Structures are given as C-alpha cells and as structure tokens.
Amino acid sequence: MGEVTVEGDVFFVGHRQLKKRNAWVVSFDMTDYTDSVRVNKFMPGEEGKPIVEGVKTGQHLVVQGRLNISRFDNELVLEPV
C-alpha cells in the first residue's frame, strides 16, 4: 500500500514475547482522534525489548512504516521500517 507517517496517541499496548522463537511481537494501537491504526512488528531476539519497555498508553508518537493488510485478522496495520 505504501509508506506513511502517522502521529497520534497510544491507547492500547499488547506486546507479546515468543519464547520458543526468542522474539517479540511489538503491537500497539494509536489514534489521531479522526482514525486509528494498529502498529505491529515482529522483532527477533532482544531487538524488540527497548520498544516493549518504552511504549506506554498515553504516549504521543510519530511512527513511519508501511501500511499492509494483516494476514492474521485481515485488518489494516502499520509495520514500522
């Protein structure tokens, strides 16, 4: 779909650790109060840990990435670059 930059407030955080794969699924929802988008990215090893520890509900963020349709739930997601 293309690369975009979104700015807004985080209103849901749902990171998951995949212990068997030694990885993280970084996932949070953000809104600009006109629309919302889920930010989702698979990150191997310890690469995702700083984001998991840093992203909190209520934060105001600017995220750049690619908009795609999630193969798991058929929803629009932003995958950071």
Strand order of the largest sheet: 1-3-4-6-5
How much is the average pLDDT? Answer: 92
Helix content: under 10%
Shape descriptor? globular
Instruction: Determine the N-to-C terminus distance.
Output: 14 Å
Walk me through this protein's architecture.
There is one protein chain. By secondary structure, the protein is mostly beta strands. Helix content is 7%, strand content 58%. It contains one helix and six strands; from the N terminus they run ββββαββ. Strands 1-3-4-6-5 form a five-stranded mixed beta barrel. The chain is globular and about 40 Å long. The model has no long low-confidence stretch (mean pLDDT 92).
What secondary-structure arrangement, pairings included, does this model have?
Elements: E1 3-13, E2 16-18, E3 23-31, E4 36-44, H1 49-54, E5 60-69, E6 76-80
Parallel strand pairs: 4-6
Antiparallel strand pairs: 1-3, 1-5, 2-3, 3-4, 5-6
Which key phrases capture this entry?
81 residues; 6 strands; mainly beta; five-stranded mixed β-barrel; single chain; globular
